[in-house]
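Collaborator request, handled under Task 6.
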Amino acid sequence: MGACLALCSLASCASCLCGSAPCLLCGCCPSSQNSTITRLVFSFFLLLGTLVSVIMILPGMETQLRKIPGFCQGGSTIPGFENQVNCDVILGYKSVYRMCFAMTCFFFLFSVIMIRVRSSKDPRAAIQNGFWFFKFLILIGITVGAFFIPDGTFNTVWFYFGVVGSFIFILIQLILLIDFAHSWNKVWVGNAEDGDNKCWFAGLLSFTVLNYALAFTAVVLFYVYYTQPDGCTEHKVFISLNLIFCVIISIVSVLPKIQEAQPHSGLLQASLISLYTMYITWSAMTNNPNRNCNPSLLSLVSNISTTEPSADGTPGQMQWWDAQSIVGLVIFLFCTLYASIRSSSNSQVNKLMQTEEGGGSGGEGVVGEDGILRAMDDEEERVSYSYFVFHVHLCLASLYIMMTLTNWYQPDTTTQAMESSMPAVWVKMSSSWLGLGLYLWTLTAPLIFPDRDFN
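Structure tokens returned to the collaborator:
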């Protein structure tokens, strides 16, 4: 009897894995929509790959694996048995490059398949919203194949792919943060006006002051720890320019003309963008190969050595984890989750991200013929988000994760080490300037083109 129940349960799970997304999560959130659950499951695939990459790059993991008899080449051996596994490839930065290469290929494949899907009536929509077991098998297959790619120039070429993709993804993160700040400000101001409760205004003011305080504190710390009285000229220029730009966007956001054209713009958005800009500035400076300008503060606290050239010219041990990488992962997780569940009323952001305005209002679950409560199909008439753009976003996110986990260090194929590089510094700084320009454009565009509808 127990075996029969187990078989029935297994069959039910198998049908869910091969079926649609609502079947997977309807028990937890039966009022959710098909489009939201699908995005969450794809994001889970990305986070699962990120977790595997983190495990592969953990300090000491290679040492522990080499202790397993008969596993790693050059490790403990078993008499009469030859060690077959090259642990240099399955661990360290090489493993991260290959894992993220597999995820990038996986999401790129689906982005190509999902071009111009208009509604859930399109046969390709069933592929987007179902067959999760087979998708998982495809991802595993691509991952296994990626680890058979010979070293050669793969690491160097894929590094530059990662730099370009991460540059674009940083801008996407900024767009999502702008959208989040707009939505946050609009909801809290609306609550304050509808309920005549000044606590909402006090909350907005508190968070605005907190963001600016953190940004100003960051500027002071940058000047103290990342500059020298007689050197580090690039850092002084980076910090000063971004400080000036943040002051400019803050002033512009509260100008009477801007407020008249966009009543919901204000200092909350500007403060959040300023804080994010300071993070990007910090992240860029930590990639400077000049250690006099890049002290790596976390290594002083945790006693972890960083990549320092030794006396014989051999690179030292690289510090895989530092503070900016951890902060970068936290921001990445927030933006990925927000992109999966967002339903913005900001028309400019919706046009850029190819999502429906005001979509995702939530509805009641639908009871199927089998009596199971399923999520609502909200895409029978038209999709609530562009499948193609969503997968491109995840594709770029995979590249960003690769660069974040490896600290944006450039592979050195001759020494099997990783080195900081100035191109990574300039890519991050350029993205911060372009992001500030993009935010300034969202503020001034209605004034420059008064005949166009920006509401």
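The cover message to the collaborator said: "The beta strands are 366-367, 373-374, 410-412, 417-419. The longest helix spans residues 154-195. Please let us know whether this matches your experimental observations."
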